[in-house]
Design a protein that fits this description.
The protein is about 60% helix and about 15% strand. Helix 2 runs antiparallel to helix 4, helix 5 packs antiparallel against helix 8 and helix 10 packs across helix 11. The N and C termini lie far apart (about 115 Å). A five-stranded antiparallel sheet has the order 4-3-2-1-5. The chain has a three-stranded antiparallel sheet with strand order 6-8-7, covered by helices on one side. The chain is elongated, with a radius of gyration of 38 Å. The chain is of the alpha+beta class and about 375 residues long. It contains twelve helices and eight strands. Among the domains are: about 110 residues, no CATH class; about 80 residues, 2-Layer Sandwich (Alpha-Beta Plaits). This is Mechanosensitive ion channel protein MscS.
Length: about 375
């Protein structure tokens, strides 16, 4: 008994000593990696995302090795070894996920999405992010399966499930039809380039920017700081507007209803002056047209262009405000007005007093009319 406890104490001392030496070596190694990480983005990200799981992995390995050689025989040796094995599998999966996250962050950091023409960079960012999430989900699933397979009952259940894989597969497919549909839609979004991170979209009459894309849902950051969460299958089955599919440049309109007397050519000159005095206009399009004439008003439409959607919104508001001020200041007679004509009232003609004619009743006062009336009245 004393020999067993001595072996246990020795194992604990050896494990603690090994882990202490490892911590000292890891400290110097981490400083070296940080220094080298100034030239390598992957090493820098590894120190952030893989450092903690690596420490846990090394600690579990040290404890498991010490227990394997120094743990005395007893009824609790098996459960302890099994628990350490489960911990090793779980921490190993965590470490692999950290490495994958580090590689993904390093790859994304090389992409320039802060430039005007960033469509290619946003496409790669979306694909890299979704691929990392798919692989991390696969690693987690494999780790969970490996942990289950360490239990004899789970292995027996797995064998019986394989024997009836057809029925179980059909039932599982029906139960997870919606989830699998969203997962496949997320994979399709990643590689079809239909939508990317930071795309400006119109969904359900809401204007916003794609903030996050997962395998099952998308998060849209709306213009008023609300978040709209939509399933990925929606974007593969329903139409939506993508304002930055090819480029961010857009056209916008400003419409005013004015009197027929408005000087259209002078209004065009005023539009050119307004656009020339602001940096919101990208210099591509400046058009003013009369698009409709109804009753006492004409509809004047100004077509302008901007580099992106937020700038276009501000430009449209600016053009609308200054055109309204110009009409009020320079041509107030062209403001919308309602024309009325006063007519002298005349007495209404008197109607003749006579009984209602034959055509004043539904069925009429004829033989045929009375016959149809009796038909509808019944016996």
């Amino acid at each position: 008994m004393s020999d067993g406890w001595g072996r246990l104490v020795s194992a604990v001392v050896v494990a603690a000593s090994a882990f202490g030496v490892f911590l000292i070596a890891e400290h110097f190694f981490r400083r070296l990696v940080r220094r080298l990480g100034r030239r390598s983005a992957v090493l820098t990200e590894l120190t952030v995302h893989a450092h903690r799981p690596f420490l846990w992995f090394a600690g579990v390995v040290a404890v498991r090795s010490a227990c394997a050689f120094g743990l005395p025989d007893g009824p609790w040796r098996g459960p302890v070894s099994h628990g350490l094995g489960l911990a090793l599998i779980g921490v190993g999966g965590w470490l692999v996920a950290g490495v994958l996250t580090s590689v993904e962050r390093a790859a994304v950091s090389r992409l320039r999405v802060d430039v005007p023409d960033n469509r290619h960079a946003r496409r790669l960012q979306t694909q890299v992010t979704l691929v990392r999430r798919i692989t991390v989900a696969g690693v987690a699933l494999l780790a969970f399966g490996a942990m289950l397979m360490t239990f004899p009952a789970a292995r027996a259940a797995g064998t019986s499930l394989l024997a009836s894989a057809g029925v179980v597969g059909a039932v599982a497919a029906l139960a997870a039809q919606s989830l699998l549909g969203n997962v496949f839609a997320g994979m399709q979004i990643a590689f079809s380039d239909a939508i990317r991170l930071d795309d400006v979209v119109i969904v359900e009459n809401e204007w916003g920017r794609i903030e996050d894309i997962t395998l099952t849902y998308l998060v849209i950051h709306l213009w008023d700081d609300r978040r709209l969460v939509m399933p990925t299958s929606y974007f593969m089955s329903q139409p939506f507007e993508n304002w930055t599919r090819r480029e961010a440049q857009l056209l916008g309109t400003v419409e005013l209803d004015l009197d027929w007397s408005v000087p259209v050519e002078e209004m065009r000159e005023e539009l050119r002056r307004i656009l020339g005095d602001t940096d919101l206009w990208d210099g591509r399009v400046s058009v003013l047209q009369v698009t409709d004439a109804v009753n006492t008003l004409i509809r004047v439409r100004a077509l302008v262009s901007a580099a992106d959607a937020p700038t276009l919104f501000d430009l449209r508001c600016l053009v609308r405000e200054q055109l309204v001020q110009w009409v009020r200041r320079a041509h107030p007679y062209a403001l919308p007005r309602l024309r009325t004509e006063h007519l002298q009232a005349s007495p209404a003609p008197k109607s003749a007093d006579h009984p209602p004619g034959q055509d004043a009743r539904l069925f009429g006062d004829t033989v045929d009319g009375r016959t149809r009336e009796r038909t509808f009245n019944g016996p």
